[in-house]
Amino acid sequence: MEVYFDNAATTQVPPEVRAIVDQVMDMDYGNPSSLHAKGAIASKYVNDARETIARTLKCEPKEILFTSGGTESNNMALIGGAYANERRGKHIITTRIEHASVYNPLLYLEKQGFEITFLPVDQNGVVDLDALRQALRPDTILVSVMMVNNEIGTVEPIEEIGAIIKRFNHEILFHVDAIQAYGKLKISVNRSKIDLLSVSGHKIHGPKGVGFLYIRDKVKISPLIYGGGQQRDLRSGTENVPGIAGLAKAAQLMYDDYSTKNNALKKVKEAFLEQVTRLEGVFSHSGEAPHIVSISFQGIARAETLLHALEAKGVYCSSGSACSSNHPAISGTLKAIGLEEEFLHATLRFSFSVYSTLEEVDYAVRVIAEEYPKLRGFVKR
Amino acid sequence: MEFKSFLIKYAEIGTKGKNRYVFEDILCSNIRHVLRPIDGRFSVRKEYGRIFVDCHEEYDYDELVEALQRVFGIVGICPVLVVPDQPWDSLSKVIVDFVDECYEDKNFTFKSHCRRINKNYPMHSNDVNMECGAVLLTAFPELRVDVHHPDVMIHIELREQIYIYSVTIPGPGGLPVGTNGTAMLLLSGGIDSPVAGYMISKRGVHLEAVYFDAPPHTSLQAKQKVIDLAKQVAKYSGAITLHIVHFTEIQEEIYHRCPEDEITIIMRRYMMRIAQKLAAMDHCQALITGESIGQVASQTIYSLQVTNAVCTYPVFRPCIGMDKQEIVSVAEKIKTYETSILPYEDCCTVFVAKHPVTKPKLEDIEQSETLLADVIDAMVDRAIETREVMKVR
Q: Is A59 noted as a catalytic residue in this protein?
């Protein structure tokens, strides 16, 4: 049996999405900028995609900018947002548990003369709102907070954060990295007073290499990519029409019949948590997100070993997050929430999708119950 | 100048007496092998102690030279102009054009070096040299002759056809792979063992390799990394038969039963034993490791003695006297370094003691190994039986 519980890393693409990608590649392959009918058809895919996505965020279609994915969206929001507003100030606020695609653009900006404040989080990974209030300054131009943490699944109080920022100064841009949240939570950009919001296609059963950035009307950001002037001069380059069509289809599937799917997803998560923490030596420190759990295994020297043991039985998961585990640095989030030293290297992330089943949960827990005790012996003596 | 032929120089083969033709034939076949994946149509021919590569279609000069520089046994690669036998009057014009096309800036010293293999050519080689100097000096007044230390040596070889060349690109040296038997390389994902394989292969030795895989303690990426390293070494050595041995069971048993500070050394002894069994099965004549004295605890001279005690085959350790930086330099040259430093561990840190023995005694280690006596032979047999074998090229 193959059980893919690594849906926070990437997701499978269902037939409906594949079909529309194929349709665009096979038949409707025109360039949206072309004047002939082939171009018009391609252009319609892009416009329809904007409308579909706008409905899911309760925003205007023109506020959606297509990108190559979450990383580009975050780069564009932060670097583009900072450069377009640097005359108002050079102070940016973020948290200690952001993804590398937020963290590294901010380090770049720091080198360019911007000042970055990193907010602490509590043991559940929730941003300290008092610290936020104290960090806000007259020269603050941008606040960036993720909606769902990719490593432990904490849901940040985005609505309260938006309110605090805008009450202090409505000109401060509020960027939300929603890459792990979109499709799993209902998001209202207006109610949460969000100016910029990043989304990736392949986390929601769409194709890789496509995503979008929501940019509130009238909010100014500078482009990162120059060229033929596509997408209102903000992001030149021929639109990735098959990717965009697939992304929109995937987004629509996520929000069609949302509550039924979301309840099923939560049920899978709860069942897994309930069963796995019954095992001796197993602890959870998972947040409220419906699809991510973070589990520590006492007495494991290296989580990767357990990961490979599970893999050998067809159960796929992640150590920390796939993005940070490529380099040996310890997970930033796990450290920030104050996880004990012995668990930093002994933590696995399991993440579910609407396609996950309770049978898969049973099987995965059974495999864990078999493999974990075998490896528990191999500690550094 | 667009060269249509390359003269291949080789050194040591010339000294191999009656076996010389064997070495030459193998070198020719190895050259053909590296040229196969390259764009263009080439042929390789042997003629009076020379090997020529002829190009019959458009080709990429740099790509061709890079490929030839990976063939052990080649000491020099000379792009050569080949023209039909002809009298000096016309030949002198060919030489003037050759120099004009090859050297835009004529401000250099030169010497002409003629070899007259075709004894029917009407001029003697000394006369050719003198005439050559004269026509070149007339044609290009900035040129100067220096018979002792010329910047450029213009070679003119009078054979059935006439060969003109002035540049020798260094080759890798060594002996053609396949002229010196086969050895089994203990290959890990580290920096040293690919270098060791390269160095022994350079002496004409065909390679096989063995990698000890320990899932789940090691990952698929670690295994892929070793395969990629073997691929890179194979660019020089030719195809490598890679044995992937599943070592988990043995490693875990050693961990459970043997003293902690001896785990690594015992593990290495079993790796050597298995490598030697594979070597015997595949008719190899020796083992190769990347060990270097004192680099880590298992490579102190005492540890090497204890490890070596299980071997009856000669164990070649070409890195033995090299410093890490020297090994890294070779790894960079043969382009294995970038792959070697990828962070996938090929031996779980769990199996490395905090304070391993640095001066193990053979009797102690043999004593500790008796703790495994009831199971280990079966495990070794199983590891060999269940190995994965692949041809890496």
A: no
| Domain positions in chain B | 1-84+161-173, 86-159, 182-392
User: For residue A347, which phi and psi values (nearest 5 degrees)?
Assistant: -120, 135
Q: Which fold has domain A15-255?
A: Aspartate Aminotransferase; domain 2 (3.40.640)
Q: Residue ranges per domain, chain A?
A: 3-11+258-376, 15-255
As given in the structure block, the two tokens for residue B192 are 């040293």
Task: Write out chain A residues lying below 8 Å of B350, CB-based.
Answer: 301-302, 305, 378-380
- The pLDDT value recorded for residue A331 is 55
* A117 contact partners, CB below 8 Å, separation of at least 6: A91, A92, A93, A94, A135
In chain A, what percentage of residues exceed pLDDT 70?
96
What is the average per-residue pLDDT within A351-355? 97
Q: How many CB atoms lie within 10 A of CB B352?
A: 16
Q: Give me the architecture of the B86-159 domain, per CATH.
A: 2-Layer Sandwich (3.30)
Alpha carbons B319 and B294: distance in angstroms, whole number: 11
CATH class belonging to A3-11+258-376: alpha beta
Lowest mean pLDDT among A129-138, A141-150, B6-15, B24-33: B6-15
For the whole model, what pTM was predicted? 0.84
How many beta carbons lie within 10 A of that of residue A330, not counting itself? 16
User: Topology of domain B182-392, per CATH?
Assistant: Rossmann fold (3.40.50)
Specify the pairing of strand B161-165 against strand B152-158: antiparallel
- In a mutagenesis test of the B interface, which of A300, A302, A313, A318 is the best target, namely the one with the most B β-carbons within 10 Å? A302
Q: Is the ipTM of this complex over 0.85?
A: no
Residue in B with minimal Cα distance to A377: B256
User: What homologous superfamily does CATH list for B1-84+161-173?
Assistant: THUMP domain-like (3.30.70.1510)
